[in-house]
Amino acid sequence: MLAEPLALLTLALMVEAAIGYPRRVYNAIGHPVTWIGALIAALDRDLNREDASPAARRIAGFLALIAILAVPGALALAVQTILAGIGLVGLLVAAVLASSLLAQRSLHEHVAAVRDGLREGGLEGGRWAVSMIVGRNPESLDAAGVSRAAIESLAENFSDGIVAPAFWLGVGGLPGGVLYKAANTADSMIGHRTPRHEAFGWAAARFDDLINLPASRLAALLIVGAAALHPHASAGKAWSAIRRDAGKHRSPNAGWPEAAMAGALGLRLAGPRTYGDTTVEDHWMGDGRAEADAADIDRALALYRTACGLLLGLAALLAVTALALSR
């Protein structure tokens, strides 16, 4: 019944917003991402042979992706089946488990740390904090670059760290959310265009692009909706930036929430970026100012909190509607 995964999603969003993933739990048993990551690392070590041809490594990567999805997906399905047999208590337990697949609180905390780092520790404090959430070379960033990097990370991770797992939880219940998280973790670990992972990680990267398509569009719309509720933001400019710039981003998905956030705040995001010693040329998202600062991070966080609230409201509305239609 459609109402059940939507009810699960609504409760999971509420639980995660309230308590996040407690540090004590992480220290005691780790996190689903770390468990999935251990599986991915083992498959990468055993199947990704450097003496194999690119074609063979691509096939090995495809087989690895199947295993990465099958193992946690089967476990999640078994857990959901067991919990479904114990009624409301089972739904509540499933919601607590599903909340670990979302990252509303932790994303807010990490981005707020960049704002605080800039205000309390200057450029070096901001660089250190932003290095925790982005892969680019922090030494190449000035204060405006640090601020833009934090806001870009907030926008992109709102899509793939919150809206996407929420979408797949609402569609497929606990197994749907776990399958998404497994695929997204695989992309983050092996979906890079490096000599080691160009071929082996091809399937993981392409699959992650595919499953993030609906969420990236929904995330952009939620940011537009949030901008309409804030006097310091512009929903019209957010929508214009999406239409003009989102498709120009080097990622088929990241440009949508980044363009929305840039337009809403009157900023320019993305553009050329440096990862290690490599400079990546990319289009700018938005046509505002590039000189972002800690106050802009504050404004972005306010939009983010409202967008998360809109996501919760949408989930609850769909759950109630599905329940009413099922009667």
UniProtKB/TrEMBL annotation:
The chain crosses the membrane at residues 55-76, 82-103, 307-325. Coiled coil: none annotated. The lineage of its organism: Bacteria, Pseudomonadati, Pseudomonadota, Alphaproteobacteria, Hyphomicrobiales. One of its GO terms (cellular component) is plasma membrane. It is a multi-pass membrane protein. One of its GO terms (molecular function) is threonine-phosphate decarboxylase activity. This is Cobalamin biosynthesis protein CobD. Pathway: Cofactor biosynthesis; adenosylcobalamin biosynthesis. The keyword Membrane applies. Keywords: Cell membrane, Cobalamin biosynthesis, Membrane, Transmembrane, Transmembrane helix. Its main location: membrane. The gene is cobD. It comes from Salinarimonas ramus. Pfam families: CobD_Cbib (PF03186). GO terms for biological process: cobalamin biosynthetic process. PANTHER family: COBALAMIN BIOSYNTHESIS PROTEIN CBIB (PTHR34308). Converts cobyric acid to cobinamide by the addition of aminopropanol on the F carboxylic group.
